[in-house]
Design goal:
By secondary structure, the chain is mainly beta. The chain has two domains: 10-30 and 126-280; 57-123, SH3 Domains (SH3 type barrels, Roll), CATH 2.30.30. Helices cover 9% and strands 42% of the residues. The chain contains two helices and 18 strands. It has helices at 255-269, 272-280, and strands at 10-12, 24-26, 57-58, 63-66, 70-73, 82-86, 91-98, 103-108, 111-117, 121-123, 133-137, 145-156, 163-175, 178-189, 200-211, 217-225, 230-236, 249-251. It is elongated and about 70 Å long. The two termini are 18 Å apart.
C-alpha cells in the first residue's frame, strides 16, 4: 500500500463541525462502543414477499447500526405491541421501510421480525469491492489519465463506532513530457460521517506526495448522499493548488460508482500546482 500522508485518517471526534473537512473524518460521538456484526454489502433492501407482516415496503439500506436501545414493534406504530428489543451498537438486517412511515422493517436470523423507528438507526455501507476498478479520466484542459482503484480493507476508528474502507489508486497520466505515474489513496466512511442519523457519507482522495508549506497534503473530499444516490464535491485542503470547484452532482447507485465519481471530482479539482508537484517527485 502507498505510504499515507500524516493527516490521512485523522479523526475529529466532534459533532456538528463544518463540512470543510479535508483529510479528516468528522464523526459524531453518539456512540462510544459497538458490536460489529459484518453483513452483506447494502443496496436497496426489499421484502422477499409483497408484504412484510402485512405492510407494504419501500426501499431502504440493507444494514443499519442501532444508535440507541429501541423497541421492535409488530406494526409501524408506537402503540403497536412490542415484539422485541435491539441494543445500541449492534447491526441489524432491514427489509425496507414501511411505506408512508419512518419505520424500518427488520429481520432476525433471516425471518421477518418487526419495525424499528428510523431515528434510532443509522444506515451502514460496505465499502468492499470484489475486484479493482479501472477507467479513464478526462476533461477540458486536464491531463488524460488511466486509473485502477484497489480495495485495501477496512478498519475501525479507535474509540468510536465509525468504520473506514481504504483504497489505493494507481494513475498514469498523459503529460507534455510523457507519462506521469503516481499513487493516490482513498477512504470511505461506512457510517454517516457527521450526523449518524443522516445518510451522508464521506469519500476522500488524497495525494500524500503533494503538500503545502505547512505539510498539509492535497485532499479532495466528496459527499455521498445515500437516499438520493448522489455524489457531490465538498472541499479541498489546498486552495492555492485547486481549480474552480465543481458544482454538479453525479449519480451513483452502488459503491463502485461512488468511488469513480469521487475520483472524477478530484481529477477536476487538481490544478497546475498539483501536476507540477507530482512531476517534481518523479
Amino acid at each position: 500500500m502507498a505510504k499515507r500522508g500524516k493527516l490521512q485518517h485523522r479523526i475529529g471526534l466532534v459533532a456538528g463541525l463544518s463540512a470543510r473537512v479535508g483529510a479528516r473524518v468528522k464523526v459524531c460521538t453518539v456512540l462510544s462502543t459497538a458490536v460489529l456484526l459484518w453483513a452483506s454489502a447494502p443496496g436497496h433492501a426489499e421484502s422477499k414477499s409483497p408484504k412484510f407482516l402485512g405492510q407494504n415496503l419501500g426501499a431502504s439500506a440493507e444494514i443499519y447500526i442501532v444508535l440507541t436501545d429501541a423497541n421492535v414493534r409488530g406494526k409501524p406504530l408506537t402503540k403497536s405491541p412490542r415484539v422485541g428489543r435491539v441494543r445500541k451498537g449492534i447491526r441489524i438486517q432491514a427489509a425496507g421501510k414501511a411505506k408512508g412511515t419512518n419505520w424500518v422493517a427488520v429481520r432476525k436470523e433471516g425471518e421477518d421480525w418487526g419495525f424499528v423507528y428510523a431515528p434510532a438507526l443509522a444506515p451502514v455501507l460496505d465499502g468492499a469491492i470484489p475486484a479493482p476498478l479501472s477507467g479513464k479520466l478526462a476533461g477540458d484542459d486536464l491531463p488524460e489519465c488511466e486509473y485502477n482503484i484497489r480495495y485495501e480493507g477496512r478498519h475501525p476508528v479507535d474509540g468510536d463506532v465509525q468504520i473506514i474502507s481504504d483504497y489505493t489508486v494507481a494513475l498514469s497520466c498523459d503529460m507534455e513530457g510523457g507519462k506521469l505515474a503516481f499513487t493516490a489513496t482513498m477512504f470511505l466512511t461506512e457510517l454517516p460521517y457527521q450526523d449518524l442519523r443522516r445518510d451522508i457519507f464521506q469519500v476522500n482522495v488524497d495525494l500524500p506526495e503533494v503538500k503545502d508549506k505547512e505539510e498539509e497534503i492535497m485532499s479532495v473530499t466528496s459527499l455521498y448522499e445515500y437516499g438520493k444516490k448522489e455524489v457531490a464535491f465538498d472541499a479541498v485542503t489546498i486552495d492555492s493548488m485547486a481549480r474552480p470547484q465543481p458544482k454538479n452532482k453525479k449519480k451513483a447507485e452502488a459503491i463502485p460508482a461512488v468511488l469513480r465519481a469521487a475520483l472524477e471530482f478530484a481529477h477536476a479539482v487538481w490544478g497546475p500546482g498539483v501536476w507540477a508537484a507530482l512531476g517534481k517527485t518523479k
